[in-house]
Amino acid sequence: MTRSTVTNRVKSVSEDCLSENITPQALRSTFTTRLLQLGVPQSEIRQLLGHTPSKLDLVPVDGYGVAEEKIRSGLY
């Protein structure tokens, strides 16, 4: 799925169902904010958002995917 496909679909749904225009970036920001409010570590949030891990992320290589598993199992 391309970026423009996602943008067009979000725009279409927001026009059809909501009284305001929502962008993919607004959804991404809301998702990130909610994760922070729930106490999800920033290193896990960066992984979920597809950011390349930095030297500051002291997460073992086999630890990536942990946040997604925790969200799916209801731990966050």
Description:
It contains four helices and no strands. The protein has helices at residues 3-17, 24-37, 42-48, 66-72. It is elongated and about 35 Å long. The chain folds into two domains: 1-37, no CATH class; 39-76, no CATH class.
Question: Key features?
Answer:
76 residues, mainly alpha, 4 helices, 57% helix
Number of helices: 4
Query: What is the number of independent domains?
Result: 2
- Residues in helices, as a percent range: 55-70%
By DSSP, the count of extended strands is: 0
Could you give a quick summary of the protein structure above?
By secondary structure, the protein is mainly α. It has helices spanning 3-17, 24-37, 42-48, 66-72. It is elongated.
How are the SSEs placed, and which strands pair?
Layout: H1 3-17, H2 24-37, H3 42-48, H4 66-72
